[in-house]
Structures are given as structure tokens and as C-alpha cells.
Fold each of these.
Amino acid sequence: MVLRITARRAIDPDYYLADAALELDGIGAHRGGEFRGQGAAGLGYDGEPHRADLEQFFAGRPRHGMTTLAHPRRQVEAFELLFAAPKLISLHLVGDDATAAVAVRAHDEGVGHALDYLEAHALATVRPSNGPEQQVTAAAMVHFTHGVSRGLDPHLHSHVLVQNLGRDQTGRFGALDGRGLWAHAAAADAIYRSHLLGGLEAAGLAARATTLEQRHLEAVFSSRSAERRQDGDVAMRLEPKAAGVTRAMLQQRWQRTARATGFELDAATLVLAPRARPRRLDEHAFAAGLLGEDRQVTARAVVRAWSVAGTGADGAHLRAATEVLLSGSDRGFGVHEASLAPRAVLPERHALRRFGPRPLDPAALLRWQTRCRMVEHHASLVLERDR
């Protein structure tokens, strides 16, 4: 599922605080949520949120102040971003605490890299009277992670509420242009998924369904299967906090469900040999991702194509490498990014033959580009001499 974004006109803090996320107890997750973003810190919000904090936060007020910074005619309080791990990765919550912690940590890190990208490139403030938009330099967010679906099946996901208030380069506050979030959603999702899959596979945990058993278990624990399942356990259908459902109770339930279909949720199904994160870009996939666009592409399309072609790479490396790749272009921000020709980011064939595919490590990529420029410069000098 691609990153889902919803504009929320009103936020009910109890909806997010009521779920204690007991299924993540003991595996290193922030069960009560946490504030994120430079904008949140600037307004005094940090750590775990409480109801009074969230009321102040979504009203557009600093944590310890009564001045409302949001425009009185603002119609949207926040934009909700939903990051959801693939079903096979969610199934690692069934395992021991150490295994589940690896999955949750990779998920949380991936979400963090995606949010850093969105805060740096996707956000702009809306100006009254059709004035020019200003890039937002600090966004305020609050992040909640859960491990189950409404049917109480394994479903590792995070709700990130982006406050509809941003501080621009002039220091002024304004409502966000939400179109930037939708425009950059595919790029942010690609960064998240690359880091998540790579983190699991580096730890020797299955992240992509490749066997019949894995595909079957994905189907068994899909949302539609959960809706159709009738086991008479009314208490287990309630919200985890209301029913007092613990992680141990859920693990037993999930194991019973798998065994009822003839399969086991065990290491033989979900553990693989560790696989290192990729070091080189899949140049064919990158070119295909760009050539599917129009004749001109945006920076966000480049980030998405690079992240997909480098699936499994570290999220921080993906962001830094695309900064190197786009360093010579007038990038822009938000929905109004500048366009560039695909050839500006596609290497010449002779460079690929001589130096191989481009590295995903940003420092190595910079060295690769430098060597290419040196060869091209030398070739131009030889050509000029021979004339």
C-alpha cells in the first residue's frame, strides 16, 4: 500500500490516545506516540504527547502559550499520513521480542527518513491574496505506531499527523499547501520502503514474499480474511486497550490462526540468510522509472525512481545521494518543483561501461561523478588538440 494522506478538518485526540498499542509492549516502540519535526520542537513540543498537549497542538498554539498562530479561517487542522509495512513484515510481530524489535525499528527509521524528506522538500505555506508561496523550513508532527489492524491481525503501521501550520523562510507562520504532500507521497513512500526492506533483509528476516507459504500467510492475515473469519471470540474483536489484549495473547491467537490453515509462523518460514544492503543502483530500473514520465521530470520523480531502483538501500543514503544527483539543478519545492530533462540525471553509456552502475553511497557517488567529469574533460582536450 502506498503512503496514504488524508486532510483532517478536526482531530479527536482520544481517537489516537485510546489505543495503548499493547501489542508493541517490550519491543522498543513509542507506544504512546511522540512529537517530531523541527516545527514541533520550536513550539515547545517534544516527547510523548498527552491530551492537553494535542489540543494545544492542533489549535495552532505553542505548548506553553495561548496565542493562536493558525489563521482563524483555517479549514484543515492536520494532514494524516499513514505508513503501512507490507503484510509479511508485519508477521514478524508474531516472533520473539528481539525479532519483532528489528521490524519495528526498521519501520520507525524508514518513517523518519520519509518525514525528513517531506519536511525538506514538500511543504510550503499558502499566502493570502494570491501572494507567492514560501518554503516551509520547520514542520510540526506527532507520530503514533500500532501493530494490529482493526481485526487484530498483524499490521505494523504509523499514523503521522502533520500540523496544518508551518514557519517559512521569513519566520512567518501560515497554513500548509497540502498539494505538496500528495505530490511528494510516492517519493517519500519509496524512501520508506527501501529502508524498511533493507533493514529486515540485513538482519536475516524475510521482507518480500517469495514462497508459497509466505504468500499464503499474507492472504490469511489480510484485512478481508480477518473480516470473514468467525471464531466466536468476541472479546478479541474489541479494541486492544478496551479488552486488555496483551502482546502474548495476540501471539497465541495469530499462531492458532496460522495452524488452522496448515502453516506455522516460525523461523523456517520467516527467517532467511542475512542479505547486505545493495551498494549499486539498478540503472535499468532507474531509467525505466524516469522514461515512464513526460519528457520533463521533477526532482521528486527522480527521488522516487532512484529509491525504487535502489530498493534496500539506507534511507539516509538515498536522500543524500539524490541531493548529490540534483545539486546542479534549480530544484524548487512543494508542488511547484522545477522540471528537468531526464538526460540530466541519466549517465552516458560509456560511463556505465567504464565505471559500472552508480554507487548508492553519496560519497562514493560524488567520486563516481568526479571521475566521469575528469574523463570527459580529458577527452575534450584530446579532441581540441587533434583539430
Amino acid sequence: MLATSLLVVVAVVAVFAFAGLALPGRGARSAARSTPPPAASAAVSPSLAAKPTPAPTPPPGFDHVVVIVMENHSLEDVLGSPSAPYLNSLAASGGLATDYSGVSHPSLPNYLAMIGGSTFGIGSDCTGCFVSAPSVADSFEAAGKTWKAYQEGIPRPCFVGSSGRYAQKHDPFIYFDGIRNDPARCGRIVPYDQLASDFGGAGAPNLAFVTPDLCSDAHDCSLATGDAWLAGQVPAILSSPAFTGSRSLLVVTFDEGEGGSDRVLTVFAGAGVKTGYRSSTRYDHYSLLRTVEDNWGLAPLAAGDGAATPMNEFFAG
């Protein structure tokens, strides 16, 4: 009887072994031994992972940017012209954009584009067509930077309207409600003669927007008159303590072309500008605004500057 029972047990064991099944009572231990260990994870615990050191925010390429806007001459009228010897000498020694153009006609929408990133649907030189959108002045103030508009011939700061050879259509800042309706902010729209004292001391703004009067900008007077005005003013800016004591940029451009193509002569001068550099890359007023914004890490204001390419190829780094 005992022998028969032993034979039965042996037979059962043999059947289980042959079938590859775990014996009752041993299943959990056998399964634990036969299950391969989990593969080692390639991921490192977040607390142990090496964290890259964030790159420091680079300082602005330029501490001051001065933009001077002349009037109504196409590139073909100015480049190589005997009536503009100073502008041509500035172009030869600094940076020259040969395919830079205005974005509209007449003057006002071009000026608005330079500081607002849009023409705001304006297609005339209207004086009551004010804009409720933000401008580059808002961006500067939000970033703790300063700006001023230097207007030759303006009767007083914050003046609304035209007077003598001062034309409101060439002063884009006064069109923005947020500036015009705030005495402290529109007080930064000042007569041009304040620029010499500001750049002669510690009052130079980060962005200086310069509008010569209707004769000095070659709108009502000849190109030779405008060039003579630049020859008398630009060297003083370039040699001023604020300009020479920091990395500063001067830009001279025209609002729109007239009598030729829409291309206008645009020149860069100052520390960091490539000497004798010339580019035929397509640019416009939105590109100039985007260049200013990128210099201080400011976000674009509208579709125009948002889609524009900054003009960084002119700078040596």
C-alpha cells in the first residue's frame, strides 16, 4: 500500500515537471526566481541629475541708440550723389543697407511703423488720427529703459499740432494715446536742442528718436541742405560723452522714397558697427524696430515687427 502511494506521488511529480508547471506551494518562490530582474533604468533621479547652468542673460549690445529720420529721397537720389557728401562718407565708413525701404506712403504711416510695428490702417498725414495701441515707449518703460523724442522746431514739450517748420506728422510718439494723454510721458517729446545737453552729461536716454525740421530733413529744402545739417549735427553726437563713453549706435534713414524706388538709404555708425559693411538684404522700417527691440530683449509689438528680421549682420558683436 505504502509502495503504491509512493509510486503515485512520484508519477505526479514527473507529470508536473514534464509540463513545466510549478508545484503547489512552490509557485510564488519559483516564479520569483524565474522572473528576470527589471532592466536598469537609464533615467537618473531628478534629484541626482546634473542640472545645466542657465546661460546668463547677455547685456544689451548697445547702451544708446540714436535714430535720425530724414525725408522723401530714394536710395538712388542719395547714394553717390554730390549733394550728399557727408551721408556718403558716413555710409562708406560704417554700415550701409542698400535694400531697405519704407513700408507705406505718405510720411505718417512710416513713422508709426518705426515705433509701433504697424501703420494701424493709416494712409495719410492726418493730425487727429490718434492710436490707442502700445508703442516701443511702453516696451522701454516696462523694461526700465528710457526714451526721448527730439523734435527740431517743436514749440514746447508735449505740443500737439504743427507749427512753423515743425510737422506733427513726423512726430509719431504724439499719436499714441498712452503718451499724449500723460503729461509725464509726453514731456519726453522735447525740442531738439536738448539733445546736446543730454548727451553731454548723464541724461542721455537709451533710445533717442530725432526728427529734423521740414528744411533740415530735406523735405522742403534740398538734399544738400539736409546733408549739411547732418554734417553739422552727427559728428557732435558721435563724439559726445554719452556716445563715446558707452557702446552706442547711430542710425540715419529716410521715411520713404520719392522720385525713384521705395528703397531709402539707411546708414549705421558707432562702436560695434562693421567698418565699410554693405548689405543687399531686404529690410524695412519694421526691421529697424525689431533691431532696437532685440537689442534690449523686448517682445515685438505687432505683426510688422514680429515678422521682421533684425539687422544684426551690421554689428561686429
Amino acid sequence: MENLQWLSLNFNEWDKHYVQTANINAALTSQLNNGDGWHQIGDNSPDNGYKVFSGSYDGQGYIISNLSMNRITTDYAGFFGRAENADIRNLGLVNVNITGGSFVGGLTGTNMTTPVTNCFVTGNVSGESFVGGISGSSSGNITNCHTSGNVNAVYWSAGGLAGKNYEVISNSYSECNVTGTVDTYYIGGLVGESYDSGSYSDARILNCYSTGNVSNGMYVGGLVGRNNSYALVFNSYSTGTVSGDSYVGGLVGQNISSTVTNSFWDTDTSGQALSDGGTGKTTAEMKSLLTFTDAGWDFVNETVNGTEDIWSLGGFTNSGYPWLTSQEYGSVQLEGLSISVSGTNASLVWEELSGATSYNVYSSEDPNAEFPGEEWTLVAENITDTSWVDSAAAGSKKFYLVVGVN
């Protein structure tokens, strides 16, 4: 934590290259700076010599947990405030609590010509305008990233992954609930507004999905609030509940001079029969492989649509909806699970798994049954503790499997 704090305060070091070598618990950030919390790395303010973060940061798969920032008047708020011509990769931020002004992100307030690769954020991110789980405003490619938690904006552009997007977001997903107010424009489960400015950007959303609920405001979509000026949505879907005041769509709230291709939303779960782009499907259809392979999606165990095996679908994984193989479904089987029985209760305890943000518990009558598979039943999900009690264990023999999810 001391090294991290040193980096945030030494703006002359913001053009260097950093590698994280261990998990960091940043809970003490809530006590810093008279309660304002974390000071962003890179902010382009006169107090810091107009320095942005222009180096590189490789988290090497490690996490930073419990980062706190309460700066409601600060623009460019996040772990990184303003990153330009930088590179950020392989980093997880767990249980963030970040509040800022405009350009607020869990990872970076804005990433200008800065790729963000293999990163994830969980927790709560709030601001006035341009607010996202990963980035408040992204003009650098975002690849293989995901978010969960809550994103809130007051006025402009809120998205589970990015508030506003100018470049390519691919192989990424969001489970964030995204909320605006009656005054908020452009709210989306993945992106608030995707905008292609022509020669200066290439706004594309490729092979992505969102599952969180999206509510309040104008130009509201399950995936994108507004797809604007030759932007593209391709091979993507959304399933969350969608509601708002005007220009509300199951997948896209408003589509202006832009393209939505081979993309879908769940008409049952979204509560929306219409969208300004995309094709509505029932929940049953959204869980059918043919819905997607007939549209040209590249799935595991088929070669007609390609051999990259971008998507997979089957069983109870991702609640039966398609998931990205780059996720590896974001899970690792735990070792050393201990079980004790008392009366009708079976108590499970396990050690914390580095990188896991929650845990799912499965049970089966056959310990040798293939996992994942139909013989394993999901009995508890999204557990944030390292223990769980099965109060319905009496009268049957059960074998348990705990999976850490990141």
C-alpha cells in the first residue's frame, strides 16, 4: 500500500513502467486526505504540473481491493485519473467505492489512446457525467474486461463498462446495474454512448454482453444508450431489465447513422418489446445455440462461422446464456474445502481465493460427474463470504463443489 500511495503522489513518476507483484488491500485509502480518499494517478491539473499517466501498469493478474475515493468535485477520478498514450493490463480492482465529478471510472477516468486489456472492476462508481465501471470516457481499445456492481450518473453518459466510447470494445461484458436520474442522457448496460467521430476514432462494440439492470433518464438501452455517428454494435446481446423516460430500447435506446448487426436482447427479462436496433428474442430463444449460430456467431464445436471459438453456451453456465471463452467463465475450482454436519445443516468453509470476487456452490449425488454438467446443480451463487450453510442437507447424500468467480 505504501508503494501505491507513493505512486499516486509523485507525479514526476507517472511516465514510468510498473509491475504489480502481490495483491494489495487498499482499505486505508478511506482515511486518506481528510476523508477524500485515494488521489488518482494522472489528473492533468496545475497542482501536479499538468501531468497525465503516460507509462504502463501490468497488474500480472493481481488485485487491488477496497479502494475508496470520495471527491465529488474532482474530474478525472478513478484509480487512474487521466491516462494518455499509456498501457494498462492484467489488473483487478475489487470492491471499489469511487465518487467523483465528471469523467469517473473504476479503473480510469479517461483512457486516451490507452489500451486496457484483461482488467476487471467490482464495486460502486458514481459521478455527475461520463461515468463507467472501467472508464468514464474511453478513446483507447478495451479488450477482455468485465465489471460488476453499480454505476450511477446525474447528467450525461453512464455505462457498465464505459460512460462514453470512441474506440473498440471487444470480448468484454458487464454485470453492473446502471442508474441515472430524470436529468440523465445516455444510459446503457455496457456503454452510455458509443460515438464514432470519423478520422479520429473507430467506435465499435464487438462480441460483448451486459446483464445488469438499466434505469432512469433518456436514451436508455440494455447494451447502449445511444449508438451515434457511424458506430457499430456487432455480435452482442443484453438481458437486464430496461426502463426510462424516453428513447428506451431493449438493446439500444437510440441509433443515429450507425449499425447494429447480429445482436439481440431478451424481451422477457428486459420488459422491452422494442429497440432502435437489434433483434428481440424470448428467454428460451436467447438460451438456444441456433439463435446465435444462425446469425454467424463463432461458437465452440462449430467451424462454419469461424475457428476462433469466441463464444460458448450450455448447461447452467452464465445462467444458460452465451458466454465468452476468454472468460474461461471467470472461475477456478477451489481445493481444501471442509464440510461439517450438524443436525440438518451442512456447513461449508473454504480459504479465500486470490482474484475471486464471489463464489458459487454446486452439489451432485455423483462426485465423479463431469463438471460443468447437468448432474451438478447450482445451489448458491454470488457468495461474498468464504462459508455457506446448506440447511436442506438432511435426507440425502450430497457432494459439493465451490467455484471462485472473478
